[in-house]
Design a protein that fits this description.
By secondary structure, this protein is α/β, with parallel strands linked by helices. The protein has three domains: 4-103, Arc Repressor Mutant, subunit A, CATH 1.10.10.10; 108-150; 155-337, 3-Layer(aba) Sandwich (Rossmann fold), CATH 3.40.50.150. It contains 14 helices and ten strands. The protein has helices spanning 4-14, 19-44, 46-49, 56-63, 70-83, 98-103, 108-133, 142-152, 157-170, 185-190, 205-217, 257-266, 285-295, 306-315, and strands at 54-55, 86-89, 92-95, 175-179, 197-202, 224-228, 240-246, 268-279, 321-325, 332-337. The radius of gyration is 24 Å and the shape is globular.
């Protein structure tokens, strides 16, 4: 016979109009709570401090927790334990969960940006969505979250860097232009071809500064330079053998793309290659979620498809367009237009 406590729980669940939906939503709410805990723990500096075990009192002092907020902080720590992200031995807390440890581990900045993007940026879009759909202004989110978006997009960096290295290795020459170069990491990928040189172009001053510093740190500043500019207006200083357009085609409206592709084709030498990578429109939740967020953000546009881009690229003067799925089961694809 089940215990009386189990019987009450079972009766309460079965008493809901849809007990299965009730249970599923409760489970979903816990994952929602986990993401918010991790977001707050990162921004407070808690996870970084817990690389080494510490007491609650030590953490309060190091993190600047106000004396009259100590009770709230202790609840926050206990929430972390309940979620399995923190553990305690005696009065000392430590990191436990794989997510928490990864967020302050090697390449943790990418995962931290992903959490920030999902909870802060995407969360804001969804909170404002009813008003937006009823005619409210699209959210002006890029000034605040541009850095976060650039960092979180590095989640697929390894796959994209390999695709870039392959394309540059197969090109006739090694002069490269990276449009929207961000941190400069794909110029670094291009550098694997011996003797390759080139330019990074970005509209964000912070990106230009970061990429320049990175190229210097990687000892590549004698081969690659970075400058600020909008590809629609800047002198591109061609011809190039390879032009990279990575994770940014959705910053151009459909009506702008033909002119963009003509500009890029004109900056390539004969036989040169345009390498375009993006998440494309698809029916999976990841792609549709990004599609919605982009469509609700000023300066961004809904996701397109390779099928839509191919004729635009051919009309711009590219003779062949090859598409490759870069991640199985996802709509991250690479296009090479020659």
């Amino acid at each position: 016979m089940p215990s009386s406590k189990w019987s009450r729980t079972l009766r309460a669940a079965l008493g809901q109009p849809d007990p299965t939906a009730h249970a599923l939503l409760l489970r979903d709410s816990q994952q929602f709570t986990r993401m918010h805990f991790l977001h707050a723990a990162v921004n407070l500096g808690l996870l970084e401090e817990l690389k080494s075990p510490a007491t609650a009192a030590e953490l309060e002092e190091r993190l600047g927790v106000a004396a009259d907020r100590a009770a709230q902080f202790r609840i926050f720590l206990e929430l972390g334990r309940s979620l399995g992200e923190l553990a305690a031995s005696g009065d000392r807390y430590r990191l436990k969960g794989r997510r928490a440890r990864a967020l302050v581990g090697r390449n943790g900045s990418v995962l931290r940006a992903l959490v920030e993007e999902q909870t802060a940026y995407h969360g804001t879009v969804y909170r404002e969505l009813p008003e937006t759909l009823r005619g409210g202004a699209l959210g002006d989110h890029l000034p605040r979250y541009a850095g976060t978006i650039a960092e979180s997009s590095r989640i697929a960096e390894g796959v994209i860097a390999g695709y870039v290295r392959e394309a540059v290795a197969e090109a006739r020459g090694g002069r490269v232009l990276d449009v929207g170069c961000g941190s400069g990491t794909y110029l670094r990928a291009a550098s694997h071809r011996a003797g390759s040189t080139g330019t990074g172009l970005d509209v964000q001053p912070a990106s230009v500064e970061l990429a320049t510093a990175n190229l210097r740190r990687w000892s590549l500043d004698d081969r690659f330079t970075v400058r600020r500019g909008d590809v629609r207006e800047a002198e591109l200083d061609g011809p190039y053998d390879v032009i990279l357009l990575l994770n940014n085609v959705y910053y151009f409206a459909a009506k702008e793309r033909p002119a963009l592709f003509r500009t890029l084709r004109g900056a390539l030498r004969e036989g040169g290659t345009l390498v375009l990578v993006s998440i494309f429109h698809d029916s999976n939740p990841t792609a549709l979620g990004l599609d919605l967020v982009l469509a609700c953000t000023q300066g961004c546009h809904p996701l397109t498809t390779p099928r839509e881009l191919a004729p635009e690229l051919r009309e711009a003067g590219f003779r062949s367009v090859r598409t490759e799925q870069l991640v199985a089961g996802q709509s991250l694809c690479g296009l090479r237009a020659d």
